[in-house]
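seq/struct pair 1
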Amino acid sequence: MPLEVGGSTPKEALAYWKSRAPVTHAEYKALSDQARQRAFTVAGLARRDQVEAVHTALSKAIEKGETLAQFKKRLGPLLDQEGWTGRKAWRIENIYRTNMQSAYMAGRYAQMKATATRRPYWRYVAVKDARTRPSHRALDGKVYPHDHDFWSTWYPPNGFGCRCTVQTLSASQVKSRGLQVESRVPTMVEPVGPNGVKLPARPLRPDPGFHGNVGREWLSGLSPRELEGELKDLASVAICREGRGVFAEGDDCKPPLISLAKRHILPVRAADIMAKGLAPEKYVKAFLGEFGIADINGAAVHKLPGGLPVVIDKGLFIQKATGKWKADKSGRGPYVKLLARTIKSPYEIWMVPAKADGRVYTTLRLMRLFSWQGKLGGFAVFNLVGGRLWQGATTFTPKLGKAETALLEYLERQRRGTLIYREP
């Protein structure tokens, strides 16, 4: 990790840092565990303005890739005031290294999850010098699947000043390098010191306060929340680009869905439709599984066509005010896999100005049609409202019959605004 040299910083790392609000140590201790993931404090600083000064300096350091010396220069008066010089200079270095590493690794996690389909294996990498903790040295080189529970505990940083990182690997790289993919996490290790001498066996655990995954815990609060009220479109026509600077409107922009080629209608099997009346957690796990998320508390960054990232986690189906599940709202539970597949692989994406809760939002509307035994069976629509809210509709009936006309008419009304993507 580039902690001592300038350079570009992943935008996800800066987004992580800007999401953390400076609070005093007393305020921090009063927060819930979830709220602490959005907070920043410095032990020993009692005043908020002092904490804010450190937070601002770290923000600049992350944004500009500043060195420790540049970071110290920004905080010169505060360091003198608090006596964090001379023998106590380690304090400010500790703050710099730990928070820079946390921001970098949170941003790195988002990037790694976005490429987990192509590079599904992660390798723990320790620096391996005289400053490396024996437990971190013992983990160096270990490879686990990206969704293994190991990363829930051991995703770096795993202590103050930890310099460990994670490398992503494809299946072919694992094979060509002769690497072993681990399945279990040891509870005890016999670490080897920097001089090659074996040290006594000890429990394998991170330092106190670092038992978690800074990347996943940050993402867990960033998924869109379901819109409770009505979403009203403000666009009445369809517009699409036909060439450089040339636009078409209306029916010229949207070929009728009734004549849609079969390759654009995803087939549904019996196993894709879940039973009615299941526990909400089962529906949520099935939805997350479509994105390769095995743990119901896991999260991943999915990129829509065009590159817009969307955080996928269980929060999509939790009512913010009450904390209760909404996975089976309006009976959609059995069809959550179809909703997930619409997000993963939409046929069209429309950008629609829409109004909700008295505000106007830019809404991305993802649409997908599904077939059953060769005939049209249903559809799913996913509206991403302002990037922070969502609303969806899913209908699936194996034998539509006369209802097919009404279904297609409804979908045609959803095709408005500006077309920004259509499946080739």
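seq/struct pair 2
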Amino acid sequence: MRWGLIPAWAKDPQQISLMFNARSETVLDKPAFKNAIKRRRCLVPADGYYEWQDAGNSKRPHFIHRRDGQPIGFAALAETWVGPNGEELDTVAIVTAAASADLAELHHRVPVTIAPGDFERWLDCGGWDEEAAMALLGPPAIGEFVWHRVSRRVNRAANDDAQLILPITAEQMAAEEPAVAKKAAPRKPAPAASEDDGQGSLF
């Protein structure tokens, strides 16, 4: 599936802003998501995800994962857009919630993770209605996830190796910080918050 949900009712995907994240608080009210939460719930498997922490004139990437090392099942919604010539485009968005107290240190929103024991309830759109599914849309428990800082190499798509999830060394930190300081420019006013809470490029 393509990252960034496109509603089935959209006339032209090129004219629709991609919706990377669906806020759990409003998912039943938003026209783009209210049918998907009822009929097209899915899971996105992952080992972890990246988040960027604001550090003054720069941002520092961190890798977040379960404390027990087990895989994660992100709550997600899927949609299929059908074009005028019968072409189909499958898209997906992650559901997010307000962060628990510990993860809020990195970002005020987090992707919703579904516990393995609740996978069936989340995926079974026929047996479990949207109200039952909504009860699962909360942040991870405090202490369930841990994180460590990683290299800014994660910011380049050309880099794709196992080193990207390893903790950054003290030497690497020292090497990266001066580089950021030299490039630092006067900060511009922050733009208005977008629907995806600034997390769209992180997953």
